[in-house]
TrEMBL record:
Subcellular location: Membrane
Organism field: Alistipes timonensis JC136
InterPro entries: Na/Glc_symporter_sf, Na/solute_symporter, Na/solute_symporter_CS
Mode of membrane association: Multi-pass membrane protein
Membership in a protein family: Belongs to the sodium:solute symporter (SSF) (TC 2.A.21) family.
Pfam families reported for this sequence: SSF
UniProt keywords, alphabetically: Membrane, Transmembrane, Transmembrane helix
Domain of life: Bacteria
Record bears the keyword rRNA-binding: no
Membrane-spanning ranges: 6-26, 46-65, 77-100, 121-150, 156-176, 188-211, 231-250, 271-297, 317-339, 366-386, 398-416, 423-441, 447-471, 507-525
GO cellular component: plasma membrane
Protein name: Solute:Na+ symporter, SSS family
PROSITE patterns per UniProt: NA_SOLUT_SYMP_2, NA_SOLUT_SYMP_3
One GO MF term: D-glucose:sodium symporter activity
Taxonomy of the source species: Bacteria, Pseudomonadati, Bacteroidota, Bacteroidia, Bacteroidales
Length: 526
């Protein structure tokens, strides 16, 4: 694709945005102690938690990948977000209170509290590898795609290095507080910019095009697809996507770390509900424009290029600069989130265990150094992602192998008081062996089966291993079950207390509203 020139005004807007983000992030940084640097002092209100969670979740796989997949296959890609909202309600209701009450810094730390340190080290290692090679590298690659549209002769590796430096410039010095405060601005810019782009798509014949698709019963506007569909078979919506959703929203350090920064369980829950509402909105501001782009820009060879193409082709001077800033907002917020969460994992799960006499300031210094190493590795790997076809395919397929055993360990840990450390570790290792086999011999094992339909087999295998091996060891001691397992008695007590709360302050009411909206969308687009 030929380069697309932007004028001085748009360039000035982008530069001012980048300067603002760096200044704002550094201004609100906290690095005096580990609690401040890694968890922002655990003082965040619900609306900040929600905006930060949304901004961190709108990664390259969402903004670039989902719009590209919508262009290629239609609205069915939104099933990932639709299922994600259902998972968020589940997470806020059952898992979030256990995370916050246990006082953990990292999600792997929860596995140690419930099981033992072996499970913690394994999951933390998996998270660090995934954050570097899936998330951080994916965000850098997506940023490079945008710049390559403007400057096709620019060196891909150089572009990636520049974006890595931008994200690191405020995240490494200021920690989670810097990242969250920068994400507040980024979330607003992203939402406003996406609404503007959606309006431009509809103004250029998008409404008539969508209406014609509905009238003709075109599959591109159907969320429910045949079992043979190569993008999202309907059974995958039931048996595969929820598992990936639990891993992404409830076991992902990058996202859950925002919730751990909440000043209370209730504030964290309301923040998750707020993020769920914003996630539903992506149907209209990310997926719809991707579908409309099939009419506006037919013949795009690489679907991942469609979102930046819409921005560059549809928006006038000024708005173009704002929308490019929105794209950069999504990418830099993802990078800053990944940097901080991954350095937290390394520092708290590994270094703090090795150097048990390290004080708060030393832990912060190690966290900063870890962030630097992480961004360098991600920047070196990012150019390789182009070999995987599309960002969404790259991310979802890798996740489908990694997620099931981890989700199995968390579900068994929270909802089964019989599961123990020996069983959890055996299930995680067995899942790792199967994941490695899948990478090498997937076709020989499952043939051409869609990866979403493979996920339940991997989950069931891990659950069975955890349960069977747990039976060979004694019951877990009582201290392993405190603030780590679901209690029906506590749930009933909470129900009684919520009966005395105004409906608009009751997180369960908002959870029901989100679920009803999900069903409503599913019915309309079935």
């Amino acid at each position: 694709m030929n380069s697309i020139a932007i004028n001085f005004v748009d360039c000035a807007i982008i530069v001012l945005y980048l300067i603002l983000i760096i200044w704002w992030g550094l201004r609100h940084g906290k690095s005096s102690d580990a609690g401040s640097y890694f968890l922002a002092g655990r003082t965040m209100p619900w609306w900040i938690v929600g905006l930060s969670l949304f901004a961190a979740s709108i990664s390259s796989t969402t903004l670039i990948g989902q719009s590209g997949d919508a262009y290629h296959t239609g609205v069915a890609v939104f099933n990932y977000n639709l299922t994600g909202v259902v998972v968020m309600v589940f997470f806020a209701t059952f898992l979030l209170p256990l995370y916050i009450r246990s006082g953990i810094f990292t999600i792997p730390e929860f596995l140690e509290r419930r099981f033992d340190k072996r499970s913690r080290y394994y999951f933390s290692g998996i998270c660090i590898v995934g954050n570097i090679f899936l998330d951080a590298a994916g965000a850098l690659y997506a940023a490079a795609l945008i710049i390559k549209l403007l400057f096709p002769d620019a060196d891909l590796q150089l572009i990636i290095i520049v974006f890595a430096v931008l994200a690191a410039s405020y995240t490494i010095p200021g920690g989670l507080s810097s990242a969250i405060n920068a994400e507040l601005i980024q979330a607003v810019i992203l939402i406003v910019g996406s609404v503007i782009l959606t309006g431009a798509c509809f103004a250029n014949g998008g409404f008539d095009y969508l209406a014609s698709l509905f009238e003709s019963g075109d599959m591109s506007v159907k969320l429910i697809r045949p079992l043979t569909d190569t993008a999202t078979p309907w059974l995958g919506l039931i048996v595969g996507m929820p598992v990936l959703g639990i891993y992404f929203w409830a076991n992902n350090q990058t996202l859950v770390q925002r919730v751990l920064s909440a000043r209370s369980v209730d504030e964290g829950r309301k923040g998750v509900m707020f993020a769920g509402a914003l996630t539903l909105a992506t149907f209209f501001i990310i997926v719809f424009p991707g579908v409309i782009a099939r009419h506006l820009f037919p013949g795009i060879e690489k679907p991942d290029m469609i979102y930046p193409t819409m921005v560059l082709r549809l928006l006038p001077t000024g708005l173009l600069g704002i929308m490019l800033s929105a794209l950069l907002a999504a990418l830099t917020s993802t990078l800053s989130a990944i940097l901080n969460s991954t350095s937290t994992l390394f520092t708290m799960d590994f270094y703090a265990k090795i150097d048990k006499r390290a004080d708060e300031r030393k832990l912060v210094r190690v966290g900063k150094l870890a962030s630097l190493v992480i961004i360098v590795i991600a920047a070196l790997w990012a150019p390789q992602i182009g070999r995987f076809g599309s960002l969404l395919k790259y991310y979802q397929e890798m996740l489908s192998y990694i997620a099931p055993p981890v989700v199995a360990a968390f579900l068994m840990g929270v909802f089964s008081r019989r599961a123990n450390g020996r069983g959890a570790f055996a299930g995680l290792i067995a899942g790792l062996v199967v994941a490695a086999a899948m990478l090498l011999w997937r076709t020989e094992i499952f043939g051409g089966m869609h990866f979403l339909l493979i996920v339940p087999f991997l989950l069931a295998f891990s659950l069975l291993v955890i349960w069977a091996v747990s039976l060979t060891a004694p019951l877990p001691p009582p201290d392993k079950l405190t603030d780590t397992t679901f209690s029906a008695a506590d749930f009933r007590a909470e129900t009684r207390s919520l009966a005395e709360v105004s409906w608009w302050r009751n997180y369960r009411v908002w959870g029901v509203v989100l679920l009803v909206l999900c069903v409503f969308i599913l019915i309309i687009f079935c």
